[in-house]
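Below is how a single chain appears once it has passed through the pipeline. First comes the sequence as given, then the structure the pipeline wrote out for it. We keep one example in the README because the format questions we get most often are answered faster by looking than by reading.
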Amino acid sequence: MTRHRPLPRILVKQGPLLLLIASIIIIWLGQEFGPADWADPFMVVPAQITESWQHLRSGSLDAATLATLGTLLTHAFLHGDFNHLLYNMLYFWIFAALIVEHLGQRWFALIFLLTAVAGGIAHTLLHPTDATPMLGASGALMGFEGAYLGLALRHQLPPPQVWPMAHPVPPFHLAALAVIGVAFDFHDVFTGEADFIAHGAHIGGFIMGLFITSVALPAERA
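Resulting structure:
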């Protein structure tokens, strides 16, 4: 009788995260080598979001309005260039993998969805009339950083060790990295730094992730 070799633990535990990262990479390849501008309708355009929200408030609900509001999520699957993709996926893997380890796959999926949307909303609130498209998983990435910070503040976590990290590091060292990152975002928002980075999306995702694990998450779940 043939004995099936069990799947590596990383594939069993982190399968959905790896699948999400692979999907984002495939989508980026489609952006690079597929038809020009096919991804434009899936990016967040703050002026369009603002207009669609006004339609929704007035009781007007149609496919175009829903499609525009849907970009609050779909923008997180798109990236501008290789460096944008590479650095986002690197930190996305580190912090999201830790969230899967501590909370499981369902909370990972929920945090990704809510922080991506929160990032899109925050960016729109800061630039309600801007017609420049915004894309990238940075809001969700910062959401996972905020979520890890919330866990570190609320619980005594073991030293995080995520492949391919060579050695475990103290939890608060990694949490401090998240705090430093979002502090730069707040600085650039308040000083009006024009660097073509969606700082509002970073802040919105971070705050949502921090809220989920420090307030909304049941104590026994963590």
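The two ends are 41 Å apart (CA to CA).

See the next section for the split statistics.
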